[in-house]
Amino acid sequence: MRYIRYVFLAVLAVVLICLALANRAPVLLSTLPEGLSTMPGLGWAAMSIELPLFLVIFAGIIAGLLIGFVWEWLREHKHRAEARHKEAELRKLQRELHRTQAERDKDKDEVLALLDQSSTRA
C-alpha cells in the first residue's frame, strides 16, 4: 500500500510540473475590472499584479481546498457537539454504575464480588 501511495505522489508531481512548465506565461490579476477601478472612491481597492499562470491555477486549487475544509468543519460542528455530549453522558452513567455496583457489593466477599462483576461485563 505504501508503494501505491509513492507511485501516486510521483505521478501527481510529474503532472503538476508539466502543468507548471506549460503555463509559465504571465497573466495580469486585478482586484476590480477596469470600469470599476476608475470610479471615485474605489481607487484604493484597485490593485493589479502579474504572475505566471501556473501560480494562479495552484493558488485557486489551494484556496478551493481550504474553503471546502472550513465549510465541512463548520457543517459538522453539530455532529461533534452531539458526540461530545453523548460521551460525557456515557462517562456519567459509567461512574454511576460503578458506584451502584460498589454499593451493592460492599457486604459481599471480595471473590464473589469480583466474580459477579466479571459475569456482568461479559
Element layout with pairings:
Blueprint: H1 2-22, E1 26-30, H2 34-37, E2 48-52, H3 53-75, H4 77-104, H5 110-121
Antiparallel strand pairs: 1-2
Described by the principal axes of the CA atoms, the overall outline is elongated
Beta-strand percentage range: 5-15%
Count of DSSP H/I helices: 5
What is the helical fraction, as a range of percent? over 70%
What order do the helices and strands follow? HEHEHHH
- Counting helices, strands and paired strands, the structural category is mainly alpha
Uncertain runs are none
Mean pLDDT: 88
Number of strands: 2
State the separation between the terminal residues, measured CA to CA: 37 Å
Write down the domain tally. 2
Could you describe the 3D structure shown?
- With 122 residues, the chain is mostly helical.
- The chain folds into two domains: 2-75, no CATH class; 78-121.
- Helix content is 72%, strand content 8%.
- The protein is built from five helices and two strands.
- The protein has helices at 2-22, 34-37, 53-75, 77-104, 110-121, and strands at residues 26-30, 48-52.
- Strands 1-2 form a two-stranded antiparallel ribbon.
- It comes from Citreimonas salinaria.
Feature tags:
122 residues; mainly alpha; two-stranded antiparallel ribbon; 5 helices; 2 strands; 72% helix; elongated
At a glance:
The chain is 72% helix and 8% strand.
